[in-house]
Design brief:
By secondary structure, the protein is mainly α. The protein has a single domain (2-122), classed as 3-Layer(aba) Sandwich (Glutaredoxin). It is built from five helices and four strands. The chain has helices at 2-8, 32-37, 45-58, 73-78, 102-122, and strands spanning 16-18, 65-67, 86-88, 94-97. A two-stranded parallel sheet has the order 1-2. The longest helix has 21 residues, at 102-122. It starts with a helix and ends in a 10-residue tail after the last helix.
Length: 132
């Protein structure tokens, strides 16, 4: 994602939306990274912001980040848990919509990169392969 941002930030807006922690150290789905970094389930918006900042710093990410509210509005609207990738065209239609969860993430990144490369080559948004 960082490399894509650095390559295509002049033709597309990027945002990481930090949602509720998928694998918090104090959850039943805890992962070693969360335990090592003491990433706990968020009990306040401030805690969520701190976790987001920690992730960005730890992974050396410069992609702009926004933080979902404690009602998880964005997560619920986009089914973002635990991770998901979307590319939204300027007309509001989706060019890329990853499958939910970790198995859709890498294929969606590849799809996104292909879409952005075509956009850069054409100088305009690629046509949608399927018109809704």
């Amino acid at each position: 994602m960082q490399r894509m941002y650095e390559t295509y930030q002049n033709i597309a807006e990027f945002r990481i939306v930090y949602i509720n922690e998928a694998h918090a150290a104090d959850s039943k789905w805890a992962v070693p990274y969360a335990k090592e970094k003491q990433l706990l389930e968020h009990i306040s918006f401030e805690a969520r912001c701190t976790s987001a900042k920690s992730l960005l710093e730890d992974k050396s990410l410069t992609v702009p980040c926004v933080v979902d509210n404690m009602e998880n509005t964005t997560n619920l609207a986009y089914s973002g848990w635990p991770d998901r990738v979307f590319v939204v065209r300027t007309d509001g239609r989706l060019a890329v919509a990853a499958k939910e969860g970790p198995f859709g993430f890498v294929p969606a990144l590849k799809q996104t990169e292909a879409w952005l490369a075509e956009f850069a080559e054409l100088g305009q948004e690629p046509k949608l392969s399927v018109t809704p």
